[in-house]
Amino acid sequence: MDRIAEFRKWKVQCLSKADLSRKGSVDEDVVELVRFLNMQDQFFTTSSCAGRILLLDGGINGFEVQKQNCCWLLVTHKPCIKDDVIVALKKANGDATLKFEPFVLHVQCRQLQDAQILHSVAIDSGFRNSGITVGKRGKTMLAVRSTHGLEVPLSHKGKLMVTEEYIDFLLNVANQKMEENKKRIERFYNCLQHALERESMTNLHPKIKEKNNSSYTHKKQRNQEKACGQCITKENDKEPENDDDDLGINITIFPEDY
């Protein structure tokens, strides 16, 4: 079986499976994006989260929060208010931690060139921790990620360790991150549509396509802001909030066995 046929088989198998996430469905803020990607011949999504605010009760052994071994006291994909957190904290018996987790998306790509297009769009849209993984069987995965998360402990052994005023402050920070996260998703979707339109056009002109492919490796040496062109609307036409991302990140390929 050739690579393209095998990719199509993987796609059919993946998209026919039941959604095994806690929610059981795609998050509202990324439904259109996920549907758009899955309509393309060269992509299909394997998992996604639009971004969320969590309150986890991680037990009393150690400080590291393990989501699979803890109690989810609160989860929302929308801005959160203090009263909801205070009520949820009353159920905590161990070390409760407030977290904001930004948008994450995993996409299997037909070939490396397709993954490079998505990777470029992700970087230019503010998801600068994105990367590509190539498995031994030829599976090419792109992970869209950023680093503007938040994780703060609030209680220890069921006892609240901070003031309500501080909780209010943390929620203000988390909600601002949620808003910025939403803008990045919109920017990614808009830039993706334009990038695929450009790719479709270059497929009609082999010389242009060859030039674009050879220039990918050197792209980070140029001004990235020109990459999206006019795909960023005026309300989103500003720099993403400062975070710890490396502006000069290059594509990273990790050989793994899937």
Automatic annotation (TrEMBL):
Residues 208-248 are annotated as: Disordered. InterPro entries: tRNA_yW-synthesising, tRNA_yW-synthesising-like_sf. The keyword S-adenosyl-L-methionine applies. It catalyses: 4-demethyl-7-[(3S)-3-amino-3-carboxypropyl]wyosine(37) in tRNA(Phe) + S-adenosyl-L-methionine = 7-[(3S)-3-amino-3-carboxypropyl]wyosine(37) in tRNA(Phe) + S-adenosyl-L-homocysteine + H(+). It comes from the Eukaryota. Keywords: Methyltransferase, S-adenosyl-L-methionine, Transferase, tRNA processing. Gene3D superfamilies: tRNA wybutosine-synthesizing-like. GO terms for molecular function: methyltransferase activity. Pathway: tRNA modification; wybutosine-tRNA(Phe) biosynthesis. GO terms for biological process: methylation; tRNA processing. Residues 12-193 form the tRNA wybutosine-synthesizing protein domain. Its EC number is 2.1.1.282. PANTHER family: TRNA WYBUTOSINE-SYNTHESIZING PROTEIN 3. Belongs to the TYW3 family. Probable S-adenosyl-L-methionine-dependent methyltransferase that acts as a component of the wybutosine biosynthesis pathway. Wybutosine is a hyper modified guanosine with a tricyclic base found at the 3'-position adjacent to the anticodon of eukaryotic phenylalanine tRNA. This is tRNA wybutosine-synthesizing protein 3 homolog. It comes from Saimiri boliviensis boliviensis (Bolivian squirrel monkey). The gene is TYW3.
